[in-house]
Amino acid sequence: MKRLTILFIALFLISGTVFSQKIAVGQVKTVVIDPGHGGAKPGALGKKSKEKDVTLSIALKLGKVITDNFSDVTVIFTRKTDVDISLSERAKLANRSKADLFLSIHANSHPKTESKGVESFVMGLSNSKANLEVAKKENADILLENDYKNNADYNGFDPNSPESYIMFALYQNAYMDKSLNFAKLIQDQYKSKIRTTNRGVKQAELFVLYKTTMPSVLTEVGFISNPTEEEYINSDEGQAEIVYCLFNAFAEYKAAEEGTKKIANPKIDIPGFNKDKKKQDNKNADKKADTTKAETKKDTADNKTAATDTTTTINSNENSTVKADTPKGITGTAKTTLPTNTERAVYRIQFLTAEKELAKDSPHFKGITDYIMLKDTKYRYLTAATATNLDEAKALQKEIQANGFKDAFIVPFFKGERISFEEARRINTAK
Fold first, then answer.
1. DSSP secondary structure of 200-259
2. What is the mean pLDDT of residues 98-114?
3. How many angstroms separate the CA atoms of 67 and 103, rounded?
4. ∠ Cα 316 322 325 (to 5°)
5. Which of 58, 114, 339, 430 qualifies as a FRET site for 95, CA 20 to 30 Å off?
6. C-alpha gyration radius of the chain
């Protein structure tokens, strides 16, 4: 019990500083690419290769492609050679760099050699034994660090101790929504270009993501324990396809965040990349843009395990006193449903998330009375006011943030359903 108390106290102390860094709204100018493992930490082992070598090769190629195509983006690597970097230092590097995005690249493994597929993780509580096992495997590098037990960054965390994972129970991250968006874009790219099992977007207690203060994703590019996938992820052709997927996901994410069009005809100058195949992939991407609403719903259901909203999350303590000026135009009548008669995609601002429904006069609303409350896994509160383009949305977001909701973020909707930024842009461009 004493150890549990210490863990909770440490977590609360951390929470006061770990999310203090804020990045510019709508800017993706610095990306940190993290090749998993390294040095004395080989990661998962295949019959012919080591995870640390595969991840480094893919990371360096991805960094090159991003740099070749985006002169306004700075790419930072947590390592560029076969060196040993602690999990805490990887996150610190990203935080010191004030990165706008963090991508950790890994290869999966399983005792059963037939296991295969690609998956991406965001930080969160595991809802399955399999996800927890992935977390334990990726966190195990901590045990290989010298004097890790006395490292204050880990607060006594032991990757093999179930008790230690309690410290993640109160985890909150203002960037969860963006992390989920990026992870889904990665999986969508994998699904359209790599012939393997799409294992979806998941959550797990991954320490390297827990410590980062920006949108962060850990992606598993294949099973090194599967002979076929090991050969694929070590080949120039396989790595080129993986890099192409990750680059496209990055380009889509950047375009959506900045409200611009995705880069056309990117320069892909890495071994194994087939330019004729790229042209075909572009045609396939155009076809994919016509995906039916039913398929979109299915993808959403497949990734439901990751559907967690954070914003400013509270435990509904109605006794607290919160004061702030009411933003202009945010007074009216609360609603519990979204309008479905809009012919264009619109943007709303999610400003609050609660464990249970709040009273209409709750001080947590800081005077806002015109809002829409949605109930799924939690109670989500969004502005009833809508914006028809990203510029209007960003202005409304800043207004909400200035009135006390610093973690408020933009959410696109179409006919009462939440959609991606890319879908919103495509719908409005077609109108």
1. EEEEE--HHHHT-SS-EEEEEEEETTSHHHHHHHHSHHHHHHHHHHHHHHHHHHHHHHHT
2. 94
3. 15
4. 130
5. 58
6. 22
